[in-house]
Each structure stands twice: as structure tokens, then as C-alpha cells.
Write a structure and sequence with these properties.
Blueprint: H1 7-18, H2 23-35, E1 40-49, E2 52-61, E3 67-75, H3 84-93, E4 97-99, H4 101-107, E5 118-126, E6 129-138, H5 142-151, H6 153-199, E7 203-208, E8 213-216, H7 236-239, H8 242-258, E9 262-269, E10 275-286, E11 292-301, H9 303-324, H10 334-351, E12 354-362, H11 365-372, H12 374-391, E13 397-402, E14 405-413, H13 416-431, E15 434-436, E16 439-441, E17 445-452, H14 459-475, E18 481-483, H15 491-505, E19 511-520, E20 526-537, E21 541-543, H16 545-555, H17 558-578, E22 585-589, H18 592-595, H19 600-611, E23 618-623, H20 624-629, H21 631-643, E24 647-653, H22 660-663, E25 670-673, H23 675-678, H24 685-700, E26 704-707, H25 713-721, E27 726-727, H26 738-743, E28 745-746, E29 749-750, H27 754-762
Parallel strand pairs: 17-18, 20-22, 22-23, 23-24, 24-25, 25-26, 26-27
Antiparallel strand pairs: 1-2, 1-6, 2-3, 4-5, 5-6, 7-8, 7-11, 9-10, 10-11, 12-14, 12-17, 13-14, 15-16, 19-20, 19-27, 20-21, 28-29
Helix pairs in contact: 2-6, 11-12, 12-13, 14-15, 15-16, 17-19
This protein binds ligand LFPHGCPZ.
Residues 516, 530, 532-533, 544-546, 549, 562, 565, 589-591, 651-652, 675, 708-711, 728-730, 735 line the site of ligand LFPHGCPZ.
């Protein structure tokens, strides 16, 4: 049986119940007291803290009908399963709210637990203002719940105080947390600052408005004049040289006054004597009232970046230099020459003056290069570049266009005598002996001059005309200077210009072979084919061998060209043999220099091996004059070639002076009557007599005989009647490309030009 307690006993009991509890435990105990009433199935304590409603604690009956308490201390709006609007209403109106079963149904089934039939909201006041509320649910009807509410009047009475206690405790907790966080933040920022000031490689400092350093990074100690105490407490004037300090202080003042950030670079000396470049940033520091109270300086060491930038700049200017200068002589190259002359021409036009362009080419440079080697050739070019530079004024341009070709541009020319004088001076200067790699070398140059505006108004025209004049100088015996004159023919010049291009012709695959058939005059059968080289020049078109073979011979280029022809002809012959085409022998022309190469027979042998062509399918032709020039040597070379199984022919026979004594000793198989005797063979009795003699001579020596340059059927008939074995000429076919040649084959047989078919028909 329950005994009624007095008010004092009740207070004491409550005090005992709530002594030494924290706010969570107080809230738990309060809802537990409410749950003690059997009609209450769920209870919650809601408290207003800082104008927000928090559900502090919730109690509900579990399956065993035991109260279970959950301290949530969560904002109401974050929790589901509560009649939010009703709870807010209690706090707003300060009146209890009773919800019967129909009101519960209206709340909806997701608000209250299943089976709830009534609910009650009870406000708790402090000074007439609700500061808390209890929310009660019951599985009984409202009257039963209301009875329990009445029985809980003591709880309601004490709840005002306890709710206040909970609020204060929360506030205290929150404040403690805020303090803790603030302390933690302070500690963190102090730690960071300490770490930054001690370990940052930057110079970081803060100065007050008088320029006294109040905070500084350790890195300052690296600076000259900063002792082990560091920068703190000092002033820029204590540390830096006077002018530097003044400049820094001026920036500090400007930063304070203008209240803006300043950025500049400065160089500071370290204790180890090294000079470092720093990027310095200064900015004002403001207090919460936005007043400037100091200046912060951050200096970053950018020495390495500067070094890299400088290196890059140097590299760029080196590259720039290289792009416009010749690496060997350091003279301006072709590009810079074009740029200089472009501006020079503009100046000449403005000042109405003349400009002279001198093109210089070293005479016989190739011989020097070939005999002394490329290193000596390079030394020579350098020496010439120096002498050229010394021989002209500073304002004049000396450039190397490539190879052994130099150019001098003389500006402000008013008198042509001056140009003549300089040209002669250069000829004399350059002709002085030079010591190159222990050899005394005397070299000369040929100079061609063109003058603006008389010989051209643009660079290319002036260059072209200076070129023509320069080659005229070469023609005139080298070591002299020629001025361009309007009528100068470019034909001879062209011939010389070819030389440079010819050097590249083999490697750039500009050479091709054409093939001209040789036929049996009696049967019309294809007996052989002569390989004739052509040069497919990129600008000049097809260049005749009559034009470039003598040049190749003169310059020594005949060796690689001749070897290329021989190899290609052998490869072609092998292909035709393999494809079953009856071509006869492949005749290849040899130039004197090529034939005289000591190891020529070995070269032929190696090419035959490489191409797989049997020797008997190859015929070599040397001219009569070549054969007779060093007849003794010729016999030896021919013997070796003959022993290899090759067929040998004397070309252009009748044009040289043959010694019959030698001729009979040459191990040859064929004579070729030169075309000059064939041309007028019917009308010129001398030509006819010579041709007859050659045919007779050949047959007497057991040699076969071929007539070159057969153009007319009558010539062919005459030759046939006189017993000439073979003919070669346009009558039968012009020289053809390999493809054209193959196209003439009908099965395994070669078909000649139309008019020759008739001739064949006679056979
Ligand atoms: N060392 C080398 N010399 C070579 C090589 N290839 C050619 N040559 C020599 O160059 C000279 C000119 O040759 P090309 O212009 O090829 O002239 C040849 C024929 O096209 C020409 N020909 C042939 N038939 C006729 C004709 O009926 N009429 C006519 N006007 N010309 C004709 O004759 C040249 C052949 O001459 P040849 O060698 O004497 O049989 C010339 O001296 C070539 O030898 C080479 O690879 N190496």
C-alpha cells in the first residue's frame, strides 16, 4: 500500500533521485518516472535549447512490457515518429494537448506506434514560459492516460527545475567543447606556425608598424648579418646593407599606406657567400577592426628557377644563333644573309645608293678536301671566313651560303671603283699562303659580282647574276673577279652549276638507265643492248650523259656513277635472263677514269657476284682514245677482264689514233664504228672507205663489228652489204626505259620500230 509523502519528503526524495547525475541521466530518469505509470506506453522529454527543440530522451515498452530508454538528445526535426506540429504547438501555446483515438488516427499511422489509442502533451514552465514538454502515448483510451497524467503532478512540478538543469548542463558542455576546440585550434595553429617558421625554406616575417620584426622564420639565420638569435626583435637596418634596408623599408611603408600587396625580386647574400634571388611578397596585416597593424613578408628562394630560366634563355639565344649562323665558320648563314640583304636593299632603295653582292667560290676546293681530308678542308673554310671578315668593313655582311661558297654584301656603294678595289683586295688576301695541318696551302677564289639596281632588284636575281659572273670568273682561269654583264650566257655556267647537283644525284636516286638494242643486220635478231645513263634532274629535267659524264669524269664523280650504272645494268640483265627474255649481251660504257681504277676488275667481279649475272652476258665498252692512251695498262686491265669471261668492245672506233700493234694485243671481241662515219656513209666516199676499212680490219682480227648511229634504212642496207655484223641506232630503236624495252617483247622476241620490221622481213 502506497503511503502519502509529505512535500519535504518528496523534495528530498527527488533530490536524492537526481543528485550527481549528468543531463542525460536526468532526462532518462524523468522519462523513466513517467513510464512508471502503466497507462503510458511511450514517453519522451523535449527541451527547448537555444530556440530549438531537442528530444532528449525517449522511453518505450519492449516486448516484455519493460521500459527501454533511449537518450537521443537529437533535434526534433531530425526525428520521425513524433507529432511535430502538436509538440511545437505545446511550446507555442503553453497548454497541455490531449489526443484521443480519433485524433491519433488523424495523426497517421507512421507517427505513433501501432496500437496507440491516446497521447498527451504536457508543457513544463519556467517563469510562465514553456521550456520543456513531455510527450506521452498510451495503448489505452484517453481517460486512462489523463488519470496517469494527473498522478504525475509531482514529476511535473520538479521538471521545471530539472529541465533548467539539463539546459545549463548542456550549455556548459557545449561551452567546454567550444573551449576545447578553440584550444585545440590554437594549439594547431601554433604548431603549424612553429613548423612553418622552423622548417619553411622561405623567409617569413611579420613587422609592426615601426618596422620591428615580431615574428620571423628560422631561414633568416641563413642570411649574412643575421646572427643565431634570428631576425626577431631586429629591424631591416640591423640586417641588410643600408641601401637594401632603405628600399625594403620604403616598400613596407608603401604596403602600410596603400594597404596593398607588393611583389618584387631581390638578391640576398647567404652566410656561405652564395648570392640568392628571392621573390618577395609583402602584404598588410589587419586586426578585426580592419586597421593595419603590421606587414607580413614572404620571400621565396627562386635562385634555381632563375638559373633554369637563364639557362633556357641562353639556350634559346644559342639556338637562335645556330639557326642564323654557320656552325663551322660562325658566319651568318643563308637565312641571315637573306635577312641582311633584304634590309640592305631597302636601305639602298631609300638612300638611292647601290649595293654590291659578291659571290666567292674557292677554286679547286674539292681537290684540297680530297687530298688533305675533310678536317683540313674545314680549317681552310674557317681561315677563309676570317680573312673575308678582315677584308671588309664592319657594316658589310660576310656569309657562308654552303660548301665552299661565300657571299659578301657591300652597302652604300657610290663608286664601282670601290667594289673593284675590295674585290682585288680579297683576291690578294685570300691568295696568301695558309698553314693548314702542317701543310702550306695556297688557294684562290673566283668572284662574281652583281650590283643593285643595275643587275637586279631582288636577292634571287642578284644571286643568280652574281653566280653567272662567278662561273665566268672560273671560266676565265679562276682567281679573278667578273662583274655581271647583261649578255653573259648562262650555258657554260649551267654546266658548272651541275657539279654540286651531280654530287647528290646518285644518293638521291636521280640517275636512270635507258637501253638501246643492237641488232644483227642480216637476221634482224636482237644481239645485245647498250645501257645508257640519264640524269633525271629535279629542276632541269632529263640531262644528257654527253653533258654530265665529262663533268663526272673531271670531278672524280665518275667512280660512284660508273659503279652504279654497272650494278644496275647487271641487275637488269639478270632479271631479263631470269624472265626468259632473249636480250643478248648487256653493253656498259666505261669512262677512262673508271677503267683506270686499279681495282676495277675486282669491282666488276664483285658486282657480278652480287647480282648473280654470268660474266658472258656482260660487255664492256671503252673508247678508242681511252684504250690507246696508256695502251700497256689497258692490255693488263683488259686481260684481267677477259679472263673473267667478259666480252670487250672498243667504242667510237675511227675517231682516235689507233696503233695497230697495240690493237692486235688487246684481248677484245668487238669494234664499234663511230656514228660520225655512218651519218654520210652513202654520200661521203671517205666515210664509206673508213667504214669499209674498219669492217675489214675487224673481220681480219676475228672481231665482230657494230655500226653506231644507224638512222636510215639505206645506211643499214649499205652496212649489211659491206658485211657489218650489227647495227645500233634510231632506225631500230631509240634508247628505251626498261619498261618500254620490255613492252617491245613479243613472247621471247624483241619487236623493232615499224620501218625495221620491213627490213627484218627481207631477212
Ligand atoms: N662512261 C659512260 N658514258 C656513258 C654512259 N651512258 C652514256 N654514255 C656516253 O654518253 C654519251 C652520250 O650518250 P647518249 O646521249 O646516251 O647517246 C647515245 C645514244 O643515244 C646515241 N645514239 C644512238 N643511236 C643514235 C642515232 O641513230 N642517232 C644519233 N644521233 N644518236 C644516236 O649515241 C650514244 C651512244 O654512244 P656510244 O656509247 O658511243 O655507243 C655517249 O658517248 C655515251 O657513250 C655511261 O653509263 N657511262
Amino acid at each position: 500500500m502506497q503511503t502519502k509523502l509529505t512535500a519535504v519528503e518528496l523534495i528530498k526524495r527527488f533530490q536524492r533521485l537526481f543528485t550527481d547525475l549528468n543531463h542525460k541521466q536526468i532526462a532518462e530518469r524523468l522519462v523513466k518516472l513517467v513510464m512508471a505509470k502503466p497507462a503510458v506506453s511511450r514517453a519522451a522529454l523535449i527541451i527547448e535549447r537555444d530556440r530549438r527543440l531537442f528530444v532528449e530522451s525517449i522511453a518505450r515498452l519492449n516486448a516484455q512490457k519493460q521500459p527501454e530508454i533511449d537518450t537521443v538528445a537529437t533535434a526534433l526535426n531530425k526525428l520521425r515518429g513524433f507529432p511535430h506540429n502538436q509538440i511545437e504547438r505545446v511550446f507555442a501555446e503553453g497548454q497541455p494537448i490531449a489526443l484521443d483515438s480519433s485524433a491519433i488516427v488523424r495523426l497517421g499511422h507512421d507517427i505513433t506506434p501501432k496500437g496507440t489509442r491516446s497521447a498527451y502533451l504536457y508543457p513544463i514552465f519556467e517563469h510562465d514560459k514553456p521550456i520543456a514538454a513531455f510527450y506521452l502515448e498510451s495503448q489505452d483510451d484517453l481517460p486512462a492516460l489523463e488519470r496517469s497524467v494527473q498522478e504525475l503532478d509531482t514529476v511535473w512540478a520538479f521538471s521545471g527545475l530539472l529541465a533548467r538543469q539539463i539546459i545549463e548542463m548542456w550549455r556548459h558542455d557545449e561551452q567546454s567543447e567550444r573551449h576545447r576546440l578553440a584550444e585545440q585550434a590554437l594549439w594547431a595553429s601554433e604548431t603549424y606556425l612553429h613548423a612553418i617558421l622552423h622548417h619553411s625554406p622561405a623567409l617569413i616575417s611579420v613587422k609592426d608598424l615601426n618596422g620591428n620584426v615580431v615574428l620571423a622564420s628560422e631561414h633568416y639565420k641563413q642570411l649574412q648579418n643575421v646572427d643565431e638569435q634570428g631576425f626577431v626583435g631586429k629591424n631591416v637596418f640591423d640586417v641588410y646593407p643600408k641601401e637594401v634596408a632603405q628600399a625594403l623599408w620604403d616598400i613596407d611603408l608603401a604596403t602600410q599606406d596603400k594597404q596593398q600587396t607588393f611583389e618584387t625580386e631581390l638578391e640576398l647574400m647567404h652566410k656561405d657567400g652564395s648570392l640568392h634571388t628571392y621573390l618577395m611578397v609583402k602584404f598588410p596585416l589587419r586586426n578585426p577592426n580592419n586597421d593595419v597593424f603590421g606587414v607580413c613578408t614572404i620571400c621565396t628562394d627562386i635562385s634555381e628557377r632563375k638559373l633554369a630560366e637563364n639557362a633556357l634563355r641562353e639556350q634559346q639565344s644559342r639556338l637562335n644563333y645556330m639557326a642564323f649562323h654557320d656552325s663551322l665558320t660562325a658566319l651568318p648563314n643563308r637565312s641571315l644573309f637573306y635577312d641582311r640583304i633584304y634590309h640592305g636593299l631597302a636601305r639602298a632603295q631609300r638612300s638611292n645608293s647601290k649595293l654590291a653582292l659578291m659571290l666567292l667560290d674557292i677554286d679547286r676546293f674539292k681537290n684540297i678536301n680530297d687530298s688533305l681530308g675533310h678536317d683540313s678542308g674545314d680549317l681552310l673554310l674557317k681561315a677563309i671566313a676570317m680573312r673575308l671578315n678582315e677584308g671588309v668593313r664592319d657594316m658589310d655582311t660576310v656569309a657562308r651560303l654552303g660548301g665552299d661558297e661565300f657571299v659578301v654584301v657591300l652597302e652604300g656603294v657610290h663608286d664601282m671603283e670601290d667594289v673593284v678595289f675590295i674585290a682585288n683586295k680579297l683576291l690578294v688576301t685570300l691568295a696568301r699562303p695558309l698553314e693548314i695541318a702542317g701543310h702550306e696551302i695556297t688557294t684562290t677564289v673566283s668572284i662574281g659580282v652583281s650590283v643593285y639596281p643595275d643587275d637586279g632588284t631582288d636577292t634571287d636575281e642578284l644571286l643568280k647574276n652574281a653566280d653567272i659572273a662567278m662561273y665566268k670568273a672560273k671560266e676565265a682561269g679562276k682567281n679573278n673577279c667578273q662583274f655581271y654583264a647583261k649578255g653573259m650566257s648562262a650555258t657554260a655556267v649551267n654546266y658548272l652549276l651541275l657539279e654540286n647537283d651531280l654530287r647528290r644525284a646518285v644518293e638521291q636516286e636521280q640517275l636512270i638507265l635507258h637501253y638501246q638494242p643492237q641488232i644483227d643486220l642480216k637476221t634482224g635478231e636482237l644481239m645485245g643492248v647498250e645501257a645508257l645513263v640519264r640524269w633525271q634532274h629535279p629542276e632541269r629535267g632529263l640531262v644528257s650523259p654527253a653533258h654530265f659524264i665529262p663533268l663526272a669524269e673531271e670531278t672524280g664523280l665518275i667512280a660512284p656513277i660508273g659503279e652504279w650504272v654497272l650494278r644496275q645494268a647487271c641487275y637488269q640483265q639478270k632479271r631479263w635472263l631470269d624472265s626468259g627474255k632473249k636480250v643478248g649481251r648487256m653493253a656498259v660504257n666505261l669512262s677512262p677514269r673508271q677503267f683506270r681504277q686499279r681495282n676495277f676488275p675486282e669491282k666488276v667481279e664483285s658486282i657480278l657476284r652480287e647480282t648473280g649475272l654470268p660474266a658472258e652476258y656482260l660487255e664492256l665498252e671503252i673508247t678508242e682514245s681511252c684504250a690507246m692512251e696508256h695502251a700497256g695498262e689497258t692490255i693488263n686491265q683488259l686481260k684481267q677482264l677477259n679472263q673473267m669471261g667478259l666480252y670487250l668492245a672498243i667504242d667510237d672506233f675511227g675517231t682516235g689514233y689507233s696503233s695497230l700493234a697495240y690493237l692486235k694485243r688487246f684481248p677484245i671481241q668487238k669494234l664499234k664504228i663511230d656514228s660520225s662515219f655512218i651519218h654520210d656513209i652513202q654520200s661521203d666516199p671517205n666515210d664509206a672507205a673508213i667504214a669499209k676499212s674498219i669492217i675489214g680490219l675487224a673481220h681480219n682480227m676475228q672481231l665482230s663489228v657494230v655500226a653506231e648511229g644507224v638512222e636510215k634504212p639505206a645506211q643499214s642496207d649499205w652496212l649489211c652489204d659491206e658485211g657489218c655484223d650489227q647495227g645500233q641506232g634510231f632506225l631500230f630503236s631509240k634508247p628505251l626505259t626498261a619498261r618500254q624495252f620490255e613492252a617491245r617483247f613479243v613472247g621471247k622476241h624483241f619487236a623493232f620500230d615499224g620501218n625495221v620490221v620491213k627490213l627484218n622481213a627481207l631477212a
